[in-house]
Design goal:
single chain, 124 residues, 5 helices
Length: 124
């Protein structure tokens, strides 16, 4: 459940920032929120694909609920990257993308660049 708390913590920070400045869209907040849970698994080494998928699904779900809440509250008024249209589709895309990338990092055999940052140096 530690990973879920990380996702919630990033989500709370995003909500506070969005309430404070609704005309500013924090583009990468959903990406970070959705990646937090699966990436936290990597700190214990390689995880099974099932564990990574459960974490990615949970974090994406939590991030999408936060996105929906912000949209309904009128706090996603900032521009998207294209400066056209609403910001919520971008937030949904980044939530799904963040969860998918982090699930791959958590489940791959070798940690790679991102997994290496989470896992720390390999012991000799």
């Amino acid at each position: 459940m530690r990973g879920a708390l990380y996702t919630v913590l990033v989500g709370v920070i995003w909500v506070v920032l969005a309430i404070r400045s609704p005309a500013v869209h924090y583009h990468f907040a959903p990406l970070f929120a959705a990646a937090a849970w699966p990436l936290s698994l990597r700190s214990q080494g390689q995880r099974t694909g099932r564990d990574a998928l459960i974490a990615a699904s949970g974090s994406a779900g939590l991030t999408l609920v936060i996105t929906l809440g912000l949209q309904l509250a009128g706090k996603l008024d900032g521009p998207n990257f294209a400066h056209r249209g609403p910001a919520w589709p971008e937030a949904v895309l980044f939530a799904v993308l963040g969860a998918a990338i982090a699930a791959r990092v958590a489940s791959r055999e070798r940690p790679g660049l991102l997994g290496g940052l989470i896992e720390g140096p390999a012991e000799s």
